[in-house]
Fold this protein.
Amino acid sequence: MKKNKFITTLFLSCLTLSAGLLLNEQAFANPAETTVAPDQIITENAQKLTQIKEVKKELLHQKNNKNEQLANLEKKIKKIQVSLDQIEEIEVIGRISNPSKSDNTQMIKLKTELLPTTIQADAKSIKKEQLIELKQQETSLKIETDTLSKQQSETEKQAAQLSDKITQVEKQKTEQAKQTDTRTAIVAAAKTHLGKPYVYGAAGPDAFDCSGLVQVAFASAGQALGRTTVDQETAGTIISVTEAQAGDLVFWGSHGGTYHVGISTGDGSYIHAPVPGDVVQIATVASYAPDFAVRIL
């Protein structure tokens, strides 16, 4: 009884995991709105998976016990059924062997070595009652085994969902790490050109205009990008300047009519090649505010 209660409690607690999975998927669906770190999601889901494995282990143990009980019951039922069949055979033989036969001179009575009829009747009644009780137990055990099978199926499904979720988040974590490395590489590449002069139409190695600097920095990190500011602003998703992270682009002008671009460093600053007569430098959003930003990675 205690084990059954324990199993039920564990199983019911695991039924909430599917809802938890859904919530985790929603929480991690949009990187811009993510409030839960991938490592935390992985850890929480791994803990849930461990819990489910414990439930699976207990369910299997319980099912094996039920199957063993069923096998023993079936043996008892078979044994009692054999006894009943034998009693019924004896009754049939008794009915055939008991009639009296007479002729004109004497009465010949056929004798049989049978148990008294009342003893046979009592034995048969007891066996039938035992058989009914055992079959009721068998039915109950089959229902319980069926329930355990369904619970096993549900926990298997939940375990698969959790494993898939962990794999998905680990993949996203790897992708995010790659993006972070790429973003860092872009900013680092741009910084290597600090102090080089602005020259209209130049794209290195000794001079740059704004979009030329951006193109070369992205190329250094293995990312192909168009040459003009309009090409570059349409290469990603528009975001607000306050959302800009390292490696995002910041633009001046209206969308489709931009005239300047820089690379965000992610700390309220950006690197850009400003105007003729000036050099590649780091500036702050506060000193010369962009109109919008674009996320390419």
DSSP finds six helices and eight strands in the chain. Residues 14-34, 101-115 have pLDDT under 50 and may be disordered. The radius of gyration is 42 Å.
